[in-house]
Write a structure and sequence with these properties.
Strand content: 5-15%
CATH superfamily: Spore Coat Polysaccharide Biosynthesis Protein SpsA, Chain A
CATH topology: Spore Coat Polysaccharide Biosynthesis Protein SpsA, Chain A
Number of domains: 1
Order of helices and strands: HEHEHEHEEHEHHEHEEHEHHHHE
CATH architecture: Alpha-Beta Complex
Distance between the termini: 64 Å
Number of strands: 11
Strand order of the largest sheet: 5-10-6-7-4-1-2-3-11
CATH class: Alpha Beta
Low-confidence stretches: 387-410
Helix content: 40-55%
Number of helices: 13
Structural class: alpha/beta
Mean pLDDT: 86
Length: 410
Protein backbone atom coordinates (compact mmCIF):
# COMPACT_ATOMS: atom_id res chain seq x y z
CA UNK A 1 0.00 0.00 0.00
CA UNK A 2 1.31 3.45 -0.95
CA UNK A 3 1.33 5.43 2.28
CA UNK A 4 3.27 8.43 0.99
CA UNK A 5 0.11 10.66 0.82
CA UNK A 6 -0.61 9.93 4.48
CA UNK A 7 2.94 10.81 5.49
CA UNK A 8 2.71 14.06 3.50
CA UNK A 9 -0.61 14.78 5.20
CA UNK A 10 0.96 14.30 8.63
CA UNK A 11 3.79 16.65 7.65
CA UNK A 12 1.31 19.30 6.46
CA UNK A 13 -0.64 19.15 9.73
CA UNK A 14 2.54 19.30 11.78
CA UNK A 15 3.69 22.40 9.89
CA UNK A 16 0.28 24.04 10.29
CA UNK A 17 0.05 23.32 13.99
CA UNK A 18 3.58 23.90 15.21
CA UNK A 19 5.21 26.20 12.67
CA UNK A 20 2.68 28.32 10.73
CA UNK A 21 0.56 29.28 13.74
CA UNK A 22 3.59 30.24 15.81
CA UNK A 23 5.02 32.28 12.93
CA UNK A 24 1.72 34.17 12.49
CA UNK A 25 1.56 34.89 16.21
CA UNK A 26 5.01 36.44 16.18
CA UNK A 27 4.36 38.29 12.90
CA UNK A 28 1.21 39.99 14.17
CA UNK A 29 2.49 40.67 17.67
CA UNK A 30 -0.08 42.37 19.91
CA UNK A 31 -2.63 42.42 17.06
CA UNK A 32 -2.81 38.62 17.27
CA UNK A 33 -5.00 39.02 20.37
CA UNK A 34 -6.89 42.31 19.91
CA UNK A 35 -8.86 43.67 22.84
CA UNK A 36 -10.85 46.72 23.89
CA UNK A 37 -10.22 48.12 27.35
CA UNK A 38 -13.00 49.19 29.69
CA UNK A 39 -15.79 47.17 28.08
CA UNK A 40 -18.20 45.93 30.80
CA UNK A 41 -21.34 44.33 29.31
CA UNK A 42 -23.89 42.44 31.37
CA UNK A 43 -22.84 38.81 31.75
CA UNK A 44 -24.68 35.61 32.64
CA UNK A 45 -22.56 32.59 33.53
CA UNK A 46 -24.22 29.26 32.72
CA UNK A 47 -22.95 26.17 34.56
CA UNK A 48 -24.62 22.96 33.33
CA UNK A 49 -24.27 20.28 36.02
CA UNK A 50 -24.72 16.52 36.09
CA UNK A 51 -23.59 14.28 38.96
CA UNK A 52 -20.84 16.64 40.05
CA UNK A 53 -21.39 16.09 43.77
CA UNK A 54 -19.65 18.28 46.32
CA UNK A 55 -17.08 19.38 43.73
CA UNK A 56 -19.60 21.89 42.37
CA UNK A 57 -18.82 23.96 45.46
CA UNK A 58 -15.30 24.61 44.14
CA UNK A 59 -16.70 25.93 40.88
CA UNK A 60 -19.17 28.21 42.65
CA UNK A 61 -16.49 29.44 45.06
CA UNK A 62 -14.29 30.41 42.11
CA UNK A 63 -17.20 32.30 40.54
CA UNK A 64 -17.72 34.19 43.80
CA UNK A 65 -14.14 35.47 43.52
CA UNK A 66 -14.58 36.95 40.04
CA UNK A 67 -13.37 40.51 39.58
CA UNK A 68 -16.47 41.87 37.84
CA UNK A 69 -19.26 44.26 38.95
CA UNK A 70 -21.97 42.25 40.70
CA UNK A 71 -24.69 44.47 39.26
CA UNK A 72 -23.64 43.30 35.81
CA UNK A 73 -23.09 39.64 36.68
CA UNK A 74 -25.45 36.73 37.23
CA UNK A 75 -24.66 33.05 37.68
CA UNK A 76 -27.01 30.21 36.74
CA UNK A 77 -26.27 26.68 37.98
CA UNK A 78 -28.46 24.29 35.94
CA UNK A 79 -28.81 20.80 37.37
CA UNK A 80 -29.60 18.40 34.52
CA UNK A 81 -31.46 15.88 36.69
CA UNK A 82 -28.42 14.62 38.59
CA UNK A 83 -28.90 11.28 40.32
CA UNK A 84 -26.61 12.24 43.22
CA UNK A 85 -26.59 15.13 45.71
CA UNK A 86 -25.21 17.76 43.31
CA UNK A 87 -28.31 19.94 43.56
CA UNK A 88 -28.07 20.02 47.36
CA UNK A 89 -24.42 21.07 47.33
CA UNK A 90 -25.02 23.71 44.68
CA UNK A 91 -27.82 25.28 46.70
CA UNK A 92 -25.69 25.26 49.82
CA UNK A 93 -22.73 26.94 48.06
CA UNK A 94 -25.01 29.59 46.50
CA UNK A 95 -26.89 30.42 49.70
CA UNK A 96 -26.68 34.10 50.62
CA UNK A 97 -25.60 35.22 47.13
CA UNK A 98 -28.57 36.76 45.31
CA UNK A 99 -26.81 36.90 41.95
CA UNK A 100 -26.51 33.09 41.90
CA UNK A 101 -29.52 30.96 40.98
CA UNK A 102 -29.58 27.19 41.22
CA UNK A 103 -32.07 25.60 38.84
CA UNK A 104 -33.17 22.09 37.99
CA UNK A 105 -34.27 20.86 34.58
CA UNK A 106 -37.62 19.00 34.49
CA UNK A 107 -35.93 16.28 32.40
CA UNK A 108 -32.41 15.37 31.34
CA UNK A 109 -31.75 17.71 28.41
CA UNK A 110 -27.99 17.67 27.92
CA UNK A 111 -25.39 20.39 28.17
CA UNK A 112 -26.37 22.43 25.13
CA UNK A 113 -30.04 22.65 26.07
CA UNK A 114 -29.19 23.45 29.67
CA UNK A 115 -27.27 26.47 28.41
CA UNK A 116 -30.21 27.36 26.16
CA UNK A 117 -32.38 27.51 29.27
CA UNK A 118 -30.17 30.28 30.59
CA UNK A 119 -30.25 32.04 27.23
CA UNK A 120 -34.05 32.07 27.43
CA UNK A 121 -34.25 33.17 31.05
CA UNK A 122 -31.50 35.82 31.09
CA UNK A 123 -31.33 39.21 29.40
CA UNK A 124 -27.53 39.58 29.67
CA UNK A 125 -25.53 40.66 26.63
CA UNK A 126 -23.03 37.80 26.97
CA UNK A 127 -23.50 34.20 28.07
CA UNK A 128 -20.40 32.50 29.48
CA UNK A 129 -20.33 28.72 29.54
CA UNK A 130 -18.43 27.19 32.47
CA UNK A 131 -18.24 23.44 33.05
CA UNK A 132 -19.26 22.18 36.47
CA UNK A 133 -15.80 20.78 37.31
CA UNK A 134 -13.97 24.02 36.47
CA UNK A 135 -12.35 26.63 38.69
CA UNK A 136 -12.25 30.03 36.98
CA UNK A 137 -9.48 32.61 37.39
CA UNK A 138 -10.74 35.84 39.05
CA UNK A 139 -9.77 37.94 36.00
CA UNK A 140 -11.17 35.52 33.40
CA UNK A 141 -14.45 37.34 32.71
CA UNK A 142 -12.70 40.67 32.18
CA UNK A 143 -10.26 39.07 29.74
CA UNK A 144 -13.08 37.35 27.81
CA UNK A 145 -15.32 40.40 27.39
CA UNK A 146 -12.36 42.55 26.32
CA UNK A 147 -11.93 40.37 23.21
CA UNK A 148 -15.35 41.31 21.78
CA UNK A 149 -13.57 44.05 19.83
CA UNK A 150 -15.69 43.65 16.67
CA UNK A 151 -19.41 43.27 16.12
CA UNK A 152 -18.90 40.04 14.17
CA UNK A 153 -17.00 38.29 16.97
CA UNK A 154 -19.65 35.98 18.41
CA UNK A 155 -17.61 33.77 20.73
CA UNK A 156 -14.42 34.10 22.76
CA UNK A 157 -12.80 31.10 24.39
CA UNK A 158 -10.34 30.98 27.26
CA UNK A 159 -7.39 28.75 28.11
CA UNK A 160 -7.84 25.54 30.09
CA UNK A 161 -5.22 24.21 32.51
CA UNK A 162 -5.26 20.81 34.20
CA UNK A 163 -6.17 21.05 37.90
CA UNK A 164 -5.15 17.49 38.84
CA UNK A 165 -1.95 17.40 36.77
CA UNK A 166 0.12 15.73 39.49
CA UNK A 167 -2.38 12.98 40.32
CA UNK A 168 -0.71 10.25 38.22
CA UNK A 169 1.09 9.59 34.93
CA UNK A 170 -2.11 9.90 32.90
CA UNK A 171 -3.03 13.34 34.21
CA UNK A 172 0.56 14.53 33.79
CA UNK A 173 0.44 13.44 30.16
CA UNK A 174 -2.80 15.36 29.61
CA UNK A 175 -1.33 18.48 31.24
CA UNK A 176 1.32 18.56 28.52
CA UNK A 177 -1.31 17.92 25.82
CA UNK A 178 -3.41 20.85 27.03
CA UNK A 179 -0.38 23.13 27.03
CA UNK A 180 0.60 22.22 23.48
CA UNK A 181 -2.99 22.55 22.29
CA UNK A 182 -3.35 26.15 23.45
CA UNK A 183 0.20 27.31 22.78
CA UNK A 184 0.56 25.80 19.31
CA UNK A 185 -2.23 23.63 17.90
CA UNK A 186 -4.98 26.28 17.94
CA UNK A 187 -2.68 29.12 16.91
CA UNK A 188 -3.36 28.96 13.18
CA UNK A 189 -7.13 29.03 13.78
CA UNK A 190 -6.66 31.86 16.26
CA UNK A 191 -4.70 33.85 13.69
CA UNK A 192 -7.71 33.96 11.34
CA UNK A 193 -10.33 34.33 14.12
CA UNK A 194 -11.86 31.01 13.11
CA UNK A 195 -11.19 28.73 16.07
CA UNK A 196 -12.92 25.46 15.19
CA UNK A 197 -13.70 24.29 18.72
CA UNK A 198 -14.04 26.53 21.76
CA UNK A 199 -14.12 24.63 25.02
CA UNK A 200 -17.25 24.73 27.14
CA UNK A 201 -14.93 24.90 30.15
CA UNK A 202 -14.71 28.66 29.58
CA UNK A 203 -16.26 30.39 26.55
CA UNK A 204 -18.28 33.59 26.19
CA UNK A 205 -21.02 33.98 23.55
CA UNK A 206 -23.14 36.87 22.34
CA UNK A 207 -26.63 36.04 23.60
CA UNK A 208 -28.27 37.38 20.44
CA UNK A 209 -26.25 34.94 18.34
CA UNK A 210 -27.29 32.01 20.53
CA UNK A 211 -30.91 33.10 20.16
CA UNK A 212 -30.46 33.29 16.39
CA UNK A 213 -29.02 29.76 16.30
CA UNK A 214 -31.45 28.23 18.79
CA UNK A 215 -33.61 26.40 16.21
CA UNK A 216 -30.50 24.64 14.90
CA UNK A 217 -29.11 23.92 18.35
CA UNK A 218 -32.42 22.50 19.56
CA UNK A 219 -32.71 19.76 16.96
CA UNK A 220 -29.33 18.06 16.72
CA UNK A 221 -29.74 14.46 15.65
CA UNK A 222 -27.82 11.64 14.00
CA UNK A 223 -29.90 9.05 12.16
CA UNK A 224 -32.95 10.32 14.00
CA UNK A 225 -31.36 9.97 17.46
CA UNK A 226 -30.85 13.13 19.59
CA UNK A 227 -27.20 13.27 20.63
CA UNK A 228 -25.54 15.03 23.56
CA UNK A 229 -21.83 14.55 22.86
CA UNK A 230 -19.61 17.09 21.13
CA UNK A 231 -21.70 20.08 22.19
CA UNK A 232 -18.77 22.53 22.19
CA UNK A 233 -17.52 21.66 18.72
CA UNK A 234 -21.04 21.65 17.25
CA UNK A 235 -21.89 25.07 18.69
CA UNK A 236 -18.60 26.58 17.50
CA UNK A 237 -19.14 25.24 14.01
CA UNK A 238 -22.67 26.62 13.83
CA UNK A 239 -21.37 30.06 14.82
CA UNK A 240 -18.76 29.94 12.05
CA UNK A 241 -21.35 28.65 9.57
CA UNK A 242 -23.55 31.66 10.35
CA UNK A 243 -20.71 33.96 9.29
CA UNK A 244 -19.38 35.06 12.67
CA UNK A 245 -15.85 35.01 14.04
CA UNK A 246 -14.61 32.85 16.90
CA UNK A 247 -11.50 33.85 18.83
CA UNK A 248 -9.34 32.54 21.63
CA UNK A 249 -7.38 34.38 24.30
CA UNK A 250 -4.73 32.77 26.46
CA UNK A 251 -5.17 35.44 29.15
CA UNK A 252 -8.58 34.17 30.32
CA UNK A 253 -7.81 30.97 32.21
CA UNK A 254 -9.49 28.23 34.18
CA UNK A 255 -8.58 24.82 35.60
CA UNK A 256 -10.41 21.55 35.01
CA UNK A 257 -10.02 17.99 36.22
CA UNK A 258 -9.08 15.50 33.51
CA UNK A 259 -9.65 11.72 33.47
CA UNK A 260 -7.39 9.97 35.95
CA UNK A 261 -8.10 6.36 34.89
CA UNK A 262 -7.70 4.67 31.53
CA UNK A 263 -11.40 3.74 31.41
CA UNK A 264 -12.39 7.39 31.87
CA UNK A 265 -9.77 8.52 29.38
CA UNK A 266 -10.83 6.05 26.69
CA UNK A 267 -14.49 6.94 27.23
CA UNK A 268 -13.59 10.59 26.71
CA UNK A 269 -11.56 9.78 23.58
CA UNK A 270 -14.44 7.80 22.09
CA UNK A 271 -16.81 10.69 22.73
CA UNK A 272 -14.35 13.15 21.19
CA UNK A 273 -13.80 10.88 18.16
CA UNK A 274 -17.54 10.82 17.54
CA UNK A 275 -17.69 14.57 17.88
CA UNK A 276 -14.79 15.06 15.47
CA UNK A 277 -16.23 12.69 12.88
CA UNK A 278 -19.78 14.03 12.85
CA UNK A 279 -18.79 17.68 12.82
CA UNK A 280 -16.03 17.26 10.25
CA UNK A 281 -18.64 15.65 8.02
CA UNK A 282 -21.17 18.39 8.74
CA UNK A 283 -18.64 21.11 8.07
CA UNK A 284 -17.74 20.00 4.56
CA UNK A 285 -20.73 21.91 3.15
CA UNK A 286 -19.59 25.32 4.39
CA UNK A 287 -15.99 25.21 5.57
CA UNK A 288 -14.90 26.66 2.21
CA UNK A 289 -16.38 30.01 3.33
CA UNK A 290 -13.57 30.43 5.86
CA UNK A 291 -10.06 31.62 5.05
CA UNK A 292 -8.39 29.17 2.62
CA UNK A 293 -5.65 28.38 5.15
CA UNK A 294 -8.25 27.41 7.77
CA UNK A 295 -10.28 25.45 5.21
CA UNK A 296 -7.16 23.50 4.18
CA UNK A 297 -6.32 22.89 7.82
CA UNK A 298 -9.86 21.62 8.43
CA UNK A 299 -9.80 19.27 5.46
CA UNK A 300 -6.37 17.90 6.37
CA UNK A 301 -7.46 17.17 9.95
CA UNK A 302 -10.51 15.28 8.70
CA UNK A 303 -8.40 13.33 6.25
CA UNK A 304 -5.95 12.43 9.02
CA UNK A 305 -8.78 11.23 11.27
CA UNK A 306 -9.80 8.74 8.60
CA UNK A 307 -6.40 7.77 7.21
CA UNK A 308 -4.18 7.50 10.28
CA UNK A 309 -5.80 4.24 11.48
CA UNK A 310 -5.00 2.84 8.01
CA UNK A 311 -1.34 3.74 8.48
CA UNK A 312 -1.23 2.02 11.87
CA UNK A 313 -3.06 -1.08 10.65
CA UNK A 314 -0.78 -1.39 7.62
CA UNK A 315 2.31 -1.15 9.84
CA UNK A 316 0.96 -3.99 11.99
CA UNK A 317 0.18 -6.18 8.97
CA UNK A 318 3.55 -5.73 7.24
CA UNK A 319 5.59 -5.87 10.44
CA UNK A 320 6.78 -2.27 10.44
CA UNK A 321 5.02 -1.11 13.58
CA UNK A 322 8.24 -0.94 15.61
CA UNK A 323 9.80 1.76 13.36
CA UNK A 324 6.49 3.66 13.41
CA UNK A 325 6.33 3.41 17.21
CA UNK A 326 9.94 4.60 17.43
CA UNK A 327 9.06 7.60 15.27
CA UNK A 328 6.08 8.34 17.55
CA UNK A 329 8.39 8.16 20.54
CA UNK A 330 10.87 10.55 18.92
CA UNK A 331 8.22 13.14 18.03
CA UNK A 332 6.52 12.91 21.43
CA UNK A 333 9.88 13.24 23.17
CA UNK A 334 10.67 16.38 21.16
CA UNK A 335 7.30 17.88 22.06
CA UNK A 336 8.00 17.10 25.71
CA UNK A 337 11.25 19.06 25.48
CA UNK A 338 9.38 21.99 23.88
CA UNK A 339 6.87 21.90 26.74
CA UNK A 340 9.66 21.91 29.32
CA UNK A 341 11.35 24.90 27.66
CA UNK A 342 8.02 26.78 27.53
CA UNK A 343 7.33 26.20 31.22
CA UNK A 344 10.85 26.55 32.63
CA UNK A 345 9.95 29.81 34.41
CA UNK A 346 6.61 28.57 35.73
CA UNK A 347 6.31 27.66 39.44
CA UNK A 348 7.37 24.06 40.03
CA UNK A 349 3.95 23.13 41.37
CA UNK A 350 2.25 24.12 38.11
CA UNK A 351 4.38 22.13 35.66
CA UNK A 352 5.17 18.48 35.07
CA UNK A 353 8.27 16.72 33.76
CA UNK A 354 9.47 16.73 30.15
CA UNK A 355 8.97 12.96 29.87
CA UNK A 356 5.31 13.11 30.94
CA UNK A 357 4.08 13.06 27.34
CA UNK A 358 5.88 9.80 26.41
CA UNK A 359 2.87 7.52 27.11
CA UNK A 360 1.12 9.34 24.26
CA UNK A 361 3.38 7.47 21.83
CA UNK A 362 1.40 4.33 22.78
CA UNK A 363 -2.02 5.77 23.58
CA UNK A 364 -2.27 7.79 20.36
CA UNK A 365 -2.00 4.83 17.92
CA UNK A 366 -4.28 2.75 20.16
CA UNK A 367 -7.03 5.37 20.25
CA UNK A 368 -6.74 6.05 16.51
CA UNK A 369 -6.76 2.37 15.57
CA UNK A 370 -9.56 1.22 17.88
CA UNK A 371 -11.71 4.22 18.67
CA UNK A 372 -11.89 5.95 15.29
CA UNK A 373 -13.70 3.00 13.63
CA UNK A 374 -15.81 2.46 16.76
CA UNK A 375 -16.79 6.12 16.76
CA UNK A 376 -17.80 6.00 13.10
CA UNK A 377 -20.07 3.01 13.74
CA UNK A 378 -21.68 4.52 16.86
CA UNK A 379 -22.37 8.09 15.77
CA UNK A 380 -26.02 7.72 16.76
CA UNK A 381 -25.22 7.18 20.44
CA UNK A 382 -27.24 9.65 22.53
CA UNK A 383 -25.24 9.33 25.73
CA UNK A 384 -22.95 11.86 27.42
CA UNK A 385 -20.88 8.80 28.50
CA UNK A 386 -19.60 10.68 31.49
CA UNK A 387 -20.23 10.58 35.25
CA UNK A 388 -22.40 7.51 34.91
CA UNK A 389 -24.92 9.15 32.61
CA UNK A 390 -27.38 6.92 30.77
CA UNK A 391 -29.25 7.91 27.62
CA UNK A 392 -32.82 9.19 27.78
CA UNK A 393 -35.13 6.15 27.50
CA UNK A 394 -36.89 5.61 24.20
CA UNK A 395 -40.12 7.55 24.08
CA UNK A 396 -39.09 9.93 26.86
CA UNK A 397 -39.18 13.59 25.99
CA UNK A 398 -36.09 15.72 25.86
CA UNK A 399 -37.82 18.75 24.38
CA UNK A 400 -37.13 22.10 25.97
CA UNK A 401 -40.07 23.20 28.08
CA UNK A 402 -41.69 26.55 27.34
CA UNK A 403 -42.17 27.30 31.03
CA UNK A 404 -39.43 28.44 33.45
CA UNK A 405 -37.19 25.81 35.00
CA UNK A 406 -38.70 23.56 37.59
CA UNK A 407 -36.92 24.85 40.68
CA UNK A 408 -34.89 27.94 41.54
CA UNK A 409 -33.32 29.37 44.64
CA UNK A 410 -31.45 32.60 45.25
Amino acid sequence: MNLVPIHLLILLIFLNRYIAGLWLRRLRGRHFDDKVEGYEPTVAIAVPMFNEGQRICRTIDSLLRLDYPLEKLEVWIVDDCSTDDSYHWARQAAAGHPHIRVLRNPANLGKRRSINQVVQESTAELIISVDSDVEVDPQAVRHLVARFSRADIAAVGGRVHVANAHQNWLTRMQAVKYHLSYEYIKAIEQAFQSVLCLSGCLTAYRRQVLLQLQPVLENRQVLGVPIKYGEDRFLTRQILKAGYRTVLTLEATCRTRVPATLSQYFSQQLRWRRSNAIDFLGGLSHIWRLHPVVALHYASLFALLLSYPVLILDSLLVGSFLPLASFHLLVVGALGVIYRLDTRKAPSGTRVGALSLLPMSILMPVTYLLYTPLALFTLDSGSWETRGHTPTPAGATNRLPHSPLAEATA
